[in-house]
Amino acid sequence: MPQIWMTYEELAGLLDCTMLEARERAHLERLDRKISRDGNKRVKLNLALTGVFIDWLKAIDNTTDRAVSELRHVHGLLKERDEQPDHLASQRSHPRQSS
Q1: Is residue 84 over pLDDT 90?
Q2: How far apart are the first and last CA of the chain?
Q3: Is the pTM of this model over 0.85?
Q4: In the beta sheet, which residues pair with residue 6?
Q5: Any bridge partners for residue 7, and if so which?
Q6: Burial of 26 (0-12, 13-18, 19+ CB in 10 A)
């Protein structure tokens, strides 16, 4: 089981709550606590919170994958447009006006 240590601020971000609520949650769940070498107080996630953290990571990865896919799609559309013959490109930039 990996050890994941988070500051109260990071834990609050993970749980979408305030830092005070994150501290209370850490206290209620009796999470291990320590002061790191950088001077920040950290709590070690238990099994349930590690699951929440992993789900959060998967959601970030999925969002990134979707954004990359959408960018590739737009790039393909732009490339297709640029590869059209010149007469089609000029029609697109200067549509016929109807009287």
Answers
A1: no
A2: 74
A3: no
A4: 43
A5: 42
A6: buried
